Amino acid sequence: MSEYRLRALQPEDVDAVLQFELAHKSFFEQKIEARPEDFYQPDAVQHHIAEFLLLQQQGLALPTLVFSADNELIGRANLKDIDQVTKSAYVGYRIAEHWSGKGVASFALEQLIQQSKQMGLMILFACVATENSASERVLRKAGFQQLETIPQVAIVQGQAVAGYLMWLKL
What we know:
Blueprint: E1 4-8, H1 14-23, H2 25-29, H3 42-57, E2 62-68, E3 73-83, E4 88-95, H4 104-118, E5 123-129, H5 133-141, E6 145-156, E7 159-169
Parallel strand pairs: 4-5
Antiparallel strand pairs: 1-2, 2-3, 3-4, 5-7, 6-7
């Protein structure tokens, strides 16, 4: 049995998600595009969750939370832009800084891969900044390969950063 668990995002997760995002904001913003400042309010997070859950109902997303064995919220992992025509989706994850390097991202990604297979998806995509070598390693370890270079994958700390579109055939 794993020391981590993944569960579906729920409407009552507003406070937990807000606290998670606030606690790790500066860490995330070193590697990925910053959220708008007005995101960090209970109403905004509630709206964010409601939008994700609507996308889930429409079969377009699978938002999940990652918990430690002692029930600490330590990450988020999602399937987004699910396309039933092409049988593809994008994966994304964000892991708390103090849990980085402990296999949490690999665990979450593996769970998303398994759920993708159960959903009948055939291809997963991921975008990663060239400077985010840790995330790139997680993707490569799971079998993702570089498909193309993206000149501007995100704005990180006010700077446009290049990245890769990676893919995995399931």
